[in-house]
Structures are given as structure tokens and as C-alpha cells.
């Protein structure tokens, strides 16, 4: 049986989530780098495997294909300590994972992409991206004043989902020195996952 195959872009926080979880859980996997800016997700081979034409996606050992980063990490972590056993803590984890994709990533990751990859002038960007990103970071800061991690006092998939782009937020023009609780939490998550500090 073949190991898990992860198709992803190493510059994408959404893709890194999957690699981190697989490595943290000791799951054997093969990483397939996809050049997204060069249209790597839109080739006939890629679209045959994953019709939505995005990364990450995985080919499971049995040949099944699964896409969407948070769905993938939830599948990989089933039965592990990354998913809380208690119903409320598990629901809290899901709450933050949904919020990450709806309210966090669309501001922080999008602004990072436009500044870091497209090299756009900050003055040309939609100012709402900065406003929404800072509001997301402020909400995270407030939550972390109550608990060490987002689903309670232990590392969960909520933290994996949120740390991916938060640790890159400075590349989107967000000043994390204004959010000391978030900065401390990033270090805790990096230590817990064994991934080390962010290095572009």
C-alpha cells in the first residue's frame, strides 16, 4: 500500500497545516510540491485528481482523494490527542477552525499574498483587509488571555489551523508586537508541533 501523498505549495499556510499534522502524528507521507503561480493546480493531471483545482489535497493510501485543508487535518487526526475527547472542547475546536477559514484567512492570508507575492503597494490594497486582519488578531488575543490554546489548555487542530497564517502575518503588514499573547501562543504551537520558528 502506498503512503499518503500530499499535494501542496510550501509557501501556503493551508498546505503546511497538512504536512505538520501528518509529521506530528508520525504518518508516512510523500510530499508533491505544486507550483501554484505557474498554474500547477490547473494541469489536466491535477484536475483529474482534484477537480476544484486547488491545493492542498491528498491521495489516501486506498486511492481516495480528499481536499480542503481543515477537512484533511480532521481526517488525519481522527482518534489522536489533536482532537479533544470532550464534546464541548471538540465543538470549540471546530468553531475556531470554521472561523479561521471565514474570518481570519480571507484577511490575513489574502493581504500577505498581495504584498509578499504580488508585491503590491499597500496603498493600493483594500483597507478593509488590514482592518479585518487586525480585528481577527485582537479577537485571538482576547481569547488567549483566558486559555493557553484555542480549544482549552492543550494543543488541538484549532491551533494548527490558526497558526499557519498567523505566524506569517508580518508578511501581510500586520504588527504582531501589538499582540503579545498571540506571539507567545505561536511559540507554544510551534514547540508542540516541533516545527520551529517561521523562516521564509
From TrEMBL:
Its EC number is 2.5.1.18. The keyword Transferase applies. Residues 86-200 form the GST C-terminal domain. Residues 2-84 form the GST N-terminal domain. The keyword Signal does not apply. Keywords: Transferase. One of its GO terms (molecular function) is glutathione transferase activity. It comes from the Bacteria. This is Glutathione S-transferase.
Amino acid at each position: 500500500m502506498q503512503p499518503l501523498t500530499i499535494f501542496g505549495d510550501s509557501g501556503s499556510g493551508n498546505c503546511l497545516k497538512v504536512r505538520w499534522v501528518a509529521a506530528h502524528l508520525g504518518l508516512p507521507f510523500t510530499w508533491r510540491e505544486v507550483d501554484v503561480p505557474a498554474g500547477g493546480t490547473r494541469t489536466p493531471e491535477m484536475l483529474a485528481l482534484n477537480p476544484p483545482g486547488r491545493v492542498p489535497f491528498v491521495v489516501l493510501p486506498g486511492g481516495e482523494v480528499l481536499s480542503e485543508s481543515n477537512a484533511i487535518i480532521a481526517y488525519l487526526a481522527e482518534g489522536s490527542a489533536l482532537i479533544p475527547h470532550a464534546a464541548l472542547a471538540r465543538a470549540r475546536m471546530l468553531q475556531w477552525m470554521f472561523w479561521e477559514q471565514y474570518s481570519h484567512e480571507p484577511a490575513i492570508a489574502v493581504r500577505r499574498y498581495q504584498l509578499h507575492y504580488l508585491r503590491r503597494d499597500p496603498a493600493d490594497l483594500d483597507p478593509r483587509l488590514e482592518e479585518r486582519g487586525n480585528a481577527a488578531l485582537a479577537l485571538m488575543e482576547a481569547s488567549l488571555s483566558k486559555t493557553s490554546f484555542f480549544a482549552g489548555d492543550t494543543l488541538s487542530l484549532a491551533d494548527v489551523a490558526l497558526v499557519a497564517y498567523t505566524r506569517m502575518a508580518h508578511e501581510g503588514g500586520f504588527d504582531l508586537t501589538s499582540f503579545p499573547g498571540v506571539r507567545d501562543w505561536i511559540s507554544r504551537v510551534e514547540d508542540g508541533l516541533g516545527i520551529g520558528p517561521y523562516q521564509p
